[in-house]
């Protein structure tokens, strides 16, 4: 049955047949029946706009569409912008739901839900501006947002805001293997249970104020999350893989404060966090990456590049990663033109398991192997390498490095490669030299021919390419293997190569 609805403020329930309805009345509520319905609302008004429509599909494979057009909208106009709202609910069945908004400003609400079934939801808006987030006081307490709920089933959800974006986009995929794409906006997305594919683009503009923000939760299942944020001011990505073997890719760029935060959750996850300066006059691009692998064997890669911009002086750049439980691979790269002090550095924590930690660039980097047989690879700058428990392999790779040992453990032997006499140091200052005396006693350095025993550190040549460092606490004697090559011998070392 076909019908056109012209009246305003109507509340209409269609027949149980397959209906086609065109709604041109304002503030109408139209409910479909049991069969496959086709409902479309077309509303148009000038500023200030007062437009509203509610469409519900009911049972069946329904097609719902709302088109909202507001004439004469400008972010600079201080009048009352009015209210525009569309609420579309697919109900049960495999539904198609769409909303087109020619212009959105201030009090704007677009809501779509798929219900049960594998639904397709598309929302296109030319403009969202949430004045509650701005400094335009004429419009205090106004807001704009898009809210989408996929419901149960494997849904496809697309949200696109084509111009400047200052409102909020919230999407919940619900259960099922969902595909979600949200372009522009301050995005908050929940994948829900299932193997989801989520792409979020948060992009600001210099027209008024500018930020790009994405927050995405993968939920249960093996999820693929791709987040891209860009803005002139605060720019951020936050991603949670939750359970499953997830892939999280985060890319952030901007002119000032930029950040990526990712947590893989349980499972063998792949995390890639990249942060770049966009450049621009009078801006100081700075930023940070922080990643948590969670339980499982994770691959975590962090990149900060603050050389992409122009006419600025970056103030900081930090990479931080935690592998947590499992055999993890953590790498961090930091590139900046003028790097001084420790405000440009990376800090990696392996956690439990046999981990591989690697840093490039930065100065004052710290690598913590924690528990397990770990491999720690420093940068060309000054690094601190702390192997922790297990048989660890430590390589400084240039710079004035500190190889830190906090406790004596018998049966363990760490290996230190490329130790440079007179530049690098072996730090034993946290280790008690005499287990039978109270307090933290300092060690004493002994030459090859001196007395060796409790509280002493001495060295011994082993083969042609290795020097052993002996450390005796009275209760435990541990050794460190220095892989120093053919040209270096035990008597080349002195007390100055140690922090005792």
Automatic annotation (TrEMBL):
Entries under PANTHER family matching the protein: S-LAYER PROTEIN
GO cellular component, as recorded: extracellular region
Residues in coiled coil: none
GO MF annotation list: calcium ion binding
Pfam family, one: HemolysinCabind
Localization of this protein: Secreted
InterPro entries on file: Hemolysin-typ_Ca-bd_CS, Hemolysn_Ca-bd, RTX_toxin/Mannuronan_C5-epim, Serralysin-like_metalloprot_C
Organism: Amaricoccus solimangrovi
Keywords: Secreted
Protein's recorded name: Calcium-binding protein
Matching SUPFAM superfamilies: beta-Roll
């Amino acid at each position: 049955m076909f019908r056109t609805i012209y009246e305003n403020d109507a509340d209409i329930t269609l027949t149980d047949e397959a209906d086609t309805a065109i709604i041109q009345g304002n503030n109408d509520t139209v409910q479909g029946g049991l069969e496959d319905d086709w409902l479309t609302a077309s509303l148009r008004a000038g500023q200030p706009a007062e437009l509203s429509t509610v469409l519900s599909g009911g049972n069946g494979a329904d097609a719902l569409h709302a088109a909202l057009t507001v004439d004469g909208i400008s972010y600079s106009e201080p009048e009352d912008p009015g209210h525009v709202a569309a609420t579309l609910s697919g109900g049960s069945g495999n539904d198609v739901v769409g909303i087109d908004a020619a212009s959105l400003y201030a009090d704007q609400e677009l809501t779509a839900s798929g219900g049960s079934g594998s639904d397709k939801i598309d929302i296109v808006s030319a403009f969202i501006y949430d004045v509650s987030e701005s400094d335009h006081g004429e419009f205090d307490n106004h807001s704009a947002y898009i809210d989408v709920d996929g419901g149960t089933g494997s849904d496809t959800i697309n949200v696109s805001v084509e111009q400047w974006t200052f409102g909020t986009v919230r999407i919940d995929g619900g259960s099922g293997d969902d595909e979600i794409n949200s372009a522009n906006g301050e995005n908050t997305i929940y994948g829900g249970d299932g193997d989801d594919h989520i792409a979020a683009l948060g992009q600001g503009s210099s027209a008024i104020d500018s930020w790009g923000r994405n927050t995405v939760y993968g939920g249960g299942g093996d999820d693929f999350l791709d987040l891209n944020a860009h803005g002139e001011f605060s720019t951020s990505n936050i991603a949670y893989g939750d359970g499953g073997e997830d892939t999280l890719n985060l890319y952030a760029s901007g002119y000032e404060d930029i950040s990526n935060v990712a947590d893989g959750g349980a499972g063998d996850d792949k995390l890639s966090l990249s942060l770049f300066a966009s450049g621009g006059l009078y801006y100081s691009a700075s930023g940070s990456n922080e990643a948590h692998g969670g339980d499982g064997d994770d691959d975590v890669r962090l990149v900060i590049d603050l050389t992409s911009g122009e006419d600025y002086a970056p103030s900081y750049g930090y990479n931080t990663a935690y592998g947590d439980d499992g055999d993890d691979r953590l790498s961090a790269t930091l590139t900046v033109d003028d790097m001084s002090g420790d405000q440009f550095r990376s800090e990696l924590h392996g956690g439990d398991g046999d981990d591989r930690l690697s840093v490039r660039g930065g100065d004052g980097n710290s690598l913590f192997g924690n528990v397990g047989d770990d491999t720690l690879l420093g940068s060309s700058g000054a690094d601190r390498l702390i192997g922790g428990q297990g048989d660890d392999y430590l390589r400084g790779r240039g710079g004035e490095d500190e190889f830190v040992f906090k406790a004596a453990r018998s049966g363990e032997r760490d290996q230190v490669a490329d130790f440079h006499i007179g530049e690098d140091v072996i730090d034993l200052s946290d280790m008690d030299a005499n287990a039978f005396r109270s307090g933290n006693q300092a060690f004493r350095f002994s030459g090859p021919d001196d007395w060796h025993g409790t509280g002493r550190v001495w060295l011994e040549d082993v083969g042609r390419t290795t020097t052993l460092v002996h450390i005796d606490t009275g209760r435990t004697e541990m050794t460190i293997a220095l892989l120093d090559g053919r040209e270096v011998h035990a008597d080349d070392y002195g007390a100055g190569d140690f922090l005792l």
